[in-house]
Amino acid sequence: MSHPHQVAFGAFWVSAALIVAAMVYLTEWVRVRRLDRESAGGWHAASFALGLLFIWVATASPLAALDHAMLTAHMVQHLLLMTLAPPLILLGVPVKPPVHGRLQAIGRPLRSGPMQKIGRALTHPALCWFAAAGTLVVWHIPSMFVLGLRSEMWHGIQQASFFAAGLLFWLPVVQPWPTVSKWPQSSVLLYLFLATLPCDILSGFLVFCDRVVYPVFLSSPQSFGRSALEDQQRAGALMWTCVTVVYLIAAAIVAVRLLLPRRMEERSMLQFESERIAARMDPRRMEAV
């Protein structure tokens, strides 16, 4: 079976799976929203739907048929599956889990003691960081990269690992559940900064390298009048820019969350002091004294 036919065959099943996931989520979202509207806001559903859309674009849209011909197309897939879709999916998780329904029945065994210990180990920020960095580096080694291009099975494993590593990486940042990470929230800023280093090294290498790192693209027809080297430089620049912008936005949101409670605490203290001073200056209180 040729690559376009394999892509079309896989796109059908991916689309079907995403539709089922959307229907299950919508059912549970409506159920939770009836119990508590704040726990399942409209933006939760919109975020989850956008995350599913990004997964579909990366794996089942016409873009999926271009990754064998253009490194830029592969990089767009990588960014959608690892950098954009996972945080949107996690942001779509309702604040409070449903007390009834399919997800509650599925999640009941996961709340056992041993499973909670395994969950805490898997969601440790250090493990999440190394999982994302390792997945990024391993799949961009030339031999592993070519393996993903020549085998549809390994190509699917590659894409699944990108998405799984992305979910792990964003868990300590988004923290959809309070028990995901016990690290101070201020450490998330360092976590995001360190995460840019592997991406910067890889993207910088692709941009400034004077040879084609993946020779498989030399024999593929190039689109938009770009050579294989220009395509490689464009892919590296895209990764460099997108990752930097997304991580900066995430760091800014975390910084605002850190500063907001302090500002509220300072305001409450100032209000308390002003009320106390006003009480001292009250003439009626002074006459009573």
Pick out its properties.
single chain; 289 residues; mainly alpha; 11 helices; 75% helix
Summarize the structure.
The protein is mainly α and 289 residues long. The protein has helices at residues 3-35, 42-59, 71-91, 102-107, 113-122, 125-139, 142-150, 152-174, 187-208, 228-281, 283-288. It has one domain (3-288).
Distance between the termini: 96 Å
Domains, number: 1
Q: Compute the average pLDDT.
A: 81
Structural class, from secondary structure content?
Answer: mainly alpha
Question: What proportion of the residues form beta strands (DSSP E)?
Answer: under 5%
What radius of gyration results from the CA coordinates? 24 Å
- Note the main sheet: none
Number of strands: 0
Description:
This protein has eleven helices and no strands. The radius of gyration is 24 Å and the shape is globular. It is mainly α and 289 residues long. Helix 2 runs antiparallel to helix 3. The model has no long low-confidence stretch (mean pLDDT 81). The N and C termini lie far apart (96 Å). The chain has one domain (3-288).
